[in-house]
């Protein structure tokens, strides 16, 4: 029997028409450090260097997902869950950073926001 190789999640990548602009939004939101800034590719990491990192890849044909998606709508492929200690204060911070509060809110203890490229993300206690 062969041993399973060690696998480590190193990062999450979001596609966007302007990866630098989306990275700047998440840098403001999370207070993470810019670690890579190349044409078409930007990466952020927590100040302590922990992983996974959050990267942004240029997708010229990016279509904003619809939240919540209906039949035939562009669906989200991934979303980020971000734990917070104060939902209202974190929500205000997210809006100040450039997020939009989603119209549809499925739970009382979670707030769904849309980043500038339309990717949903959740703030929760």
TrEMBL record:
Superkingdom assignment: Bacteria
InterPro entries: Glyas_Bleomycin-R_OHBP_Dase, Glyoxalase_6, VOC_core
Pfam families: Glyoxalase_6
Keyword flag Chloroplast: no
GO molecular function terms listed in the Swiss-Prot or TrEMBL record: dioxygenase activity; lyase activity
Domain VOC: 8-125
Coiled coil segments of this chain: none
Keyword annotations from UniProtKB, A to Z: Dioxygenase, Lyase, Oxidoreductase
PANTHER family according to UniProt: CONSERVED PROTEIN (PTHR35908:SF1), HYPOTHETICAL FUSION PROTEIN (PTHR35908)
Protein name: Catechol 2,3-dioxygenase-like lactoylglutathione lyase family enzyme
Organism: Georgenia soli
Source organism phylogeny: Bacteria, Bacillati, Actinomycetota, Actinomycetes, Micrococcales
């Amino acid at each position: 029997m062969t041993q399973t190789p060690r696998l480590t999640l190193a990062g999450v990548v979001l596609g966007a028409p302007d990866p630098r602009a989306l990275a700047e939004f998440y840098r403001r939101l999370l207070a993470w450090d810019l670690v890579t800034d190349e044409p078409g590719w930007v990466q952020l990491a927590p100040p302590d260097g922990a992983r996974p990192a959050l990267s942004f890849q240029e997708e010229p044909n990016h279509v904003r997902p619809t939240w919540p998606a209906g039949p035939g709508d562009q669906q989200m492929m991934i979303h980020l869950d971000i734990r917070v200690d104060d939902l209202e204060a974190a929500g205000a911070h997210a809006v100040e950073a450039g997020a939009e509060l989603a119209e549809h809110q499925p739970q009382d203890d979670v707030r769904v926001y849309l980043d500038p490229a339309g990717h949903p993300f959740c703030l929760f206690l």
